[in-house]
Design a protein that fits this description.
- By secondary structure, the chain is α/β, with parallel strands linked by helices.
- The protein has a domain of 185 residues: 3-Layer(aba) Sandwich (Rossmann fold), CATH 3.40.50.360.
- The chain is 30% helix and 18% strand.
- The strands form three sheets. Strands 1-3-2-4-5-6-7 form a seven-stranded mixed beta sheet, sandwiched between helices. A two-stranded antiparallel ribbon has the order 8-11.
- Strand 9 and strand 10 form a beta hairpin.
- The chain binds flavin mononucleotide and iron/sulfur cluster (2 copies).
- The site of one iron/sulfur cluster has 14 residues, from helix 6.
Amino acid sequence: MTKRFHGVTSLVRVAVIGIYYFSGTGNTAWVARQLAARLIDLGDEVTLTSCEHASALDVDPAAYDVVGVAFPVHASFAPLVFRDFLDRLPPGEGKPLFALTTAGYAAGDTAWYAAQPLQAKGYDPFLLANVKMGNNLHLPLLSPLPVTPPEKMEPLLYRARAKIAQLANLIQQREPYEEGVGLTGRALGIVQRGLVERFEDLAFKGFWADETCTRCGWCVRHCPVHAIEMTETEVAFGDKCIICMRCYNFCPVQAIQLTEATRDAEKYRRYSGPEGKPYPADSVGPPIFRVG
Ligand SMILES: Cc1cc2nc3c(=O)[nH]c(=O)nc-3n(C[C@H](O)[C@H](O)[C@H](O)COP(=O)(O)O)c2cc1C
Ligand code: SF4
Ligand code: SF4
């Protein structure tokens, strides 16, 4: 889905900005929308597109003055589905680019790392930044840190709005700005990527639906990589999962598990998203049923 916004007349340079994003549980979508709104207030024209609704091959960098990409930090990587999208983007031919991450705790050098292949393709990254949002990942073995509870979201979003306003000004002025490329950020990135590459297969054996599943089909309809199928006997999770945490967090009855331990919904709380509702918003449709 592509949304086109038109800015108001302003004395500063008006730019046409195309932002492409991926969001697993709504944080990055929220940030991208806030940023678009702010840039429009500053006079720009902004197109906001989820990579779930676009082919990278159809992106025309020549149509924009600035291209932006936004995505959640997944252990110092961009999510696999978004890395694939970035890989398929056409050459940048010098187009100014900003890369924006969202992270629950610390982003390290993720924006920089993800922008490297784009730079090699001719984009010109001038702004690399992170907006701290709620943490959507708490799983046995993979991540010991708690998800951000709803009662802590308001101050978090307040700070995020202030950061987004600052970033919008920098983007408007094409002001060079880099976060995460110092020693600490780079070290965190190198260590995390190394750990994931070695141990992710050991720590993540895939999700499954327990006996409380109502077969509502929400997870099947909304998995961004179509990894979930409903058969006559079960809800089956294939091997394409990118651990975006959408189905696990937003299953209406918390039936999706990683281990027996995650049945304890007090200990392994589900993240409720930046606005306390599932992402993406559901239009009530018929349950999907496919014979396996
Ligand atoms: C697989 C995975 C890995 C993550 N790794 C990190 C991390 O290394 N550092 C961090 O601060 N947050 C990490 N997070 C939390 C997310 O980056 C954060 O909640 C993000 O804002 C989610 O954005 P989304 O709702 O747009 O998917 C991770 C989340 C997932 C699902
Ligand atoms: S969202 Fe939950 S209840 Fe609905 S089909 Fe998926 S696992 Fe079952
Ligand atoms: S199976 Fe669930 S966690 Fe994995 S990619 Fe699909 S929605 Fe995301």
